[in-house]
Every structure is written in structure tokens, then in C-alpha cells.
Amino acid sequence: MFIIWRARTLTQIIIAAATIVLFMAIFYWQNGAIATLVGQQPPSAIYKVDTNRRIVALTFDISWGDQMAPKVLHVLKNKGVTKATFFLSGPWTLQKSEIAKQIRDMGYEIGSHGYKHDNFTEHSNDWIRSQVTKAEQAIYDVTGVKTRLIRTPNGDFDKRVLRTLHDMGYTVIQWHTDSLDWKNPGVGAITQRVLTRAVPGDIILLHASDTCKQTDQALPAIIDGLRQKGFEFVTVSELLQEASPKSKLE
User: Which residues cross the membrane (predicted)?
Assistant: First the structure.
């Protein structure tokens, strides 16, 4: 009887311990801690990188129109800026394929800006995967570029969205300096904001959609001002290779 009682007690202890381990695993998984326990950081959005070099990445989001993008490309060419990153939405790429090809042919880096311009946090993981896949295919069909960088519509994300995109092989790119050109606050205001906020390793947010009506006018002074401060222009991918990313989750 004593042996049977000990066996039952041992079985109960094992079951109880296994239950505790299971609940702990669920807790850690939900809080992104399992990756940390095995020596990996949970996925995060990249805002800038830590570097001593005076380099910055000019980035342009495009989701609508065909007037501003050619003007921006014209300024970049005239100013001799050969390195920049454009985040293109899927529908825009299909509708304005010639401009998308021009961006590629001029040697600029291309990333994804998703498909439908909705906040990812308001949709399921399946919806996110479907939208990103559609955008990836559209950009590839037009430009031959397989995107690995993404800027989510409206810069909207949370831990769940980051995990979903990471599992798809994407790196989420945010920004450290927002030009606020999307508010059309005036050419001087856009220029001054960028020049006073830019730091080494910065990712600078600009737009080349038609809703932003002052970007091309502000861009020459932004480029000249950054150069006067000793900055050089690189793509986002080159920036990420420079140093360990400094990232944060909002």
C-alpha cells in the first residue's frame, strides 16, 4: 500500500509540475519572453541605428498619385543623391508602374508599404499576411524587386503585428525624424524640422504621394542643409549594416 501511495503521489507531483511549466510557457510566449530566454530578442521596429558616422537614410512613402513622385526623383537626380529608400504600396505600384520602374532604374531601394492603407493592428494575422503578400507580388511583378523591408500603413503596429511580419521575413522600418510633410505645414517648416532633428544613423520620413504638396520644394534645402552638416545619404539597408539597430516598440 505504501508503494502504491508513493507512486500516486509522485504521479500527482509530476502532473502538477507539468501544469505549472505549461502555464509559464504560455505566459512567456505571450509576453515575447521565450525568445529572450533562448538568447534572441523579440522582433522590433527600427527607428535609427547607433553609429559615429554622419549618415542618414532619406525615405519616401508612396501610396497615391503621379505628380509628386516624379518631382521628388527629379530633385534627387539634380542634387546627386543616389541613395534613398522608397516604400511603395501594392495598388500604386500596379497603377503607376512606369514611375515604380523609374525608381528602380535610378538605383533607389524599394520597400513595401503594404496593400490596403489600413492600420494592421485592426486586422487579423491572416489579413496582414494576405495584404503583405499581395503587395510583395505586385512590387515584384512590376520591378522585379522582392521586398524585405516594410513600413506599415500609418506606421501602425504592435507586438503581434511585428511578430507576424518578422515570421514573413520582413523588417519593420519606422523613423526617427518625421518631416511632417504630410501635414503641408509650409516649405520652411518642413526643412527646419528635418535639419534641427536629424542625427547620425537617422531614418527620415518623407512622402512622395500627391497629398503631400510641398515635399519637392523643401527637399533641395533639406539635402543641402544635411550636407552642410556633414551628412551623407545611404539606403535603409546600408544603414542597418552599419551598426546594431537602436529600436523601440511604441
Answer: 12-29
Q: Which amino acid is at 35?
A: A
Query: Of the residues 61, 181, 202, 216, which is catalytic?
Result: 61
68, 191: one domain: yes
pLDDT digits (tens, 9 = 90+) for 148-192: 999 999 999 999 999 999 999 999 999 999 999 999 999 999 999
Any catalytic annotation for residue 74? Answer: no
- Cα 97 from chain centroid? 22
| pTM for the full predicted model | 0.83
Distance of CA 137 to the CA centre of its chain: 18
Overall average pLDDT of the 57-73 stretch: 98
- Of the candidates 113, 176, 207, 216, the residue annotated as catalytic is 207
CATH number assigned to the domain comprising residue 94: 3.20.20.370
| Catalytic residue check, 166 | no
Distance CA 116, CA 223 (A): 31
| Displacement of CA 16 from its chain's centroid (Å) | 44
Q: What is the DSSP string of 137-196?
A: HHHHHHH-----EE--GGG---HHHHHHHHHTT-EEB--SEE--GGG---HHHHHHHHHH
Closest CA to 68 of 220, 191, 208: 208
HSE-up of residue 68 (Cα within 13 Å, Cβ side): 24
